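Summary for the steering committee. One of the milestones for this cycle was to obtain a three-dimensional model of the protein with zinc ion bound, which we needed before selecting residues for the alanine scan. The sequence and ligand used are listed below.
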Amino acid sequence: MSAPSSPRHQTLLAVAVETPQHAGLGGTLDYLSEQSLSPGTLVRVPLGKRELPGIVWERADGPTTDAQALKPIRQALTALPPLPAAWRQLLGFAAAYYQRNLGELALAVLPPELRKLDATQLDRRLKRLPKTVAGLASTAATAPRAALTKDQSTAVDEIGRVGAGTCLLHGVTGSGKTEVYMEAAARVLDQGRQVLVLVPEINLTPQLEASFAARFTGRRIASQHSGMTPAQRLSHWLAAHLGEADLVLGTRLAVFAPMPRLGLIVVDEEHDPSFKQQEGARYSARDLAVYRGKLEGVTVVLGSATPSLESWHRAQRGQYTLLPMPERIGQGVLPSLKVVDMTNQPRANVGSGDALSQPLVHALRERLARGEQSLLLLNRRGYAPVLQCTACGWKSACPHCSAWRVFHKADRTLRCHHCGLAERVPRACPDCGNLDIHATGRGTERLEEQLTELLPGARIARIDADSTRLKGSLEAQLAAVHDGDVDVLVGTQMIAKGHDFRRMTLVAAVSPDNALYSSDFRAPERLFALLMQAAGRAGRDAAMGARSEMWVQTWNPRHPLFAALARHDYAAFAASQLKDREAAGLPPFAHLALLRAEAKDAAVAQRFLHAAAEAAAALPQSASVMIYPPVPPAVSRVADVERVQMLLESASRTALQHLLAALQPQLHQLRSSHRGLARWAIDVDPLAI
Ligand SMILES: [Zn+2]
Ligand SMILES: [Zn+2]
């Protein structure tokens, strides 16, 4: 290292320190050290009255502040090999791109336990590591290796050929994407390299973990997700970083796992919104995986039956290698689509618009008689989304949020799904004392109740966030469906993902229309993905596949989304959506960032954003960036905090990045002149606007 020396012959070090975003400290801080330490070394440093963990970073050239005023580091944790250069580059990029403080992000992605350790404690942990590593070796019973179909082996060969590039594996549900991931992984592992596999939600994909364990007996598989204990997370992370783990499987935070022998990155269900972190540093693990692949010269495989329009667009333009797998393996057939036009249904049956139509009830009875299973999808948990007084019009508003409280009949509560406030259902209207309070609309609880009446004797189960609160209950309920102990399964989108129910021949979306006219521009894309995914639950069994059906109840039967769904034609749907996006100037044809502000008083947040808009407009970098006026989001008040947001849009990603970087310091200044502002944040590439 060529760092200049201080008068006391100490080395000058740049250290990334965990300082809060709003402290206004960007980049790194300078410290002194008697040892010369390589970048990537973990250290403990004084900051104010506290001692904090930090990471030695490359020091930008240029004079430091008065060396006399600098403090020495407290400790260097040299027992841990330095975090590699590629890792530091990834973090440097992520911090700059997502407009976060480098130290905050770099430390936040380390296991929480690691941040607490001093040198002695770290030594102790490292001594115990061989035991952990031994435990990572898969001892699952070897699964017979399936022979690959032509599509699968073409995909595997292509992945091997791509080198440092990104592949989009577009495989319909049941086409065997997992086999492709595993075969591609096997080739990389055989070269002595490591494989990183990212999944959207680890709790919903134990199957993938089990598949990898069965396929790779003897290989050491480490995990990284928030469901692990702090001690587990640390030991698995250490195994990845020290190159002891062969495979690392995890959720979005695993994209930052340091892996010295990385050879392949797989992002399964790449379209899933949960790859985007929604608080703190709002990064996209999928996008960072693509960047990391480029940085480390390894192949990235993005897999989905319904790719994000961003990824699809890139594949169409040749930036990604498209690997199509249009066939289901075995004799699995995709279900045919039945659209129930709700405008034609008798009024009495239709009720509030999300009831069950006669034809659907009839189809359910047929399944029941044949001993087959059905799945009803309703993306709204609880009994009814709102309670209403028939006399005075009182509604069950949350006193702390701009939202209704949902009626949960099972425990007779009114619950706010935004702030969590739960209260007993009032016996009478709180405003006028009327005893006739009416449940309006329908959630999964009410649908379950209605099915019990309509299908006497049927075994009905409900899976949603309420029914699966207890640890292990989701697995138990899914197992019951698998074992054939359930005739009709009711649930939210939780049940659409990844589960393979062999006797399922009917999947119905009870009330999917909301998404068609949502203000969220990604809502149709998500609905299409959800319905395709749900449809994929049916017809897995060859014998029953021929009569498997996907039902949709809609008031808009001629919507192009349903036409594309009927043909299982993702490409046609994507083409029509991309045309709309281009016309509307939305991603991937434009790049967006949201500046969010929160305060007890909405006016304060508004004033802050107006000042920010003025500051942004005055910057030379604003030339090709559109700055929109601040507006409240759909749910503006949550837990008594008012939220306002301002959209920035540009056809050029670089122009937007330059503006945001120039605006940052001004926002820190503006904050101090806006008393009462709770916080502000920049969301680059927001999921919704
Ligand atoms: Zn009333
Ligand atoms: Zn609330």
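Key point for the committee: Residues 389, 391-392, 394, 429, 431-432, 434 surround zinc ion (ligand 1) (CB under 6 Å).
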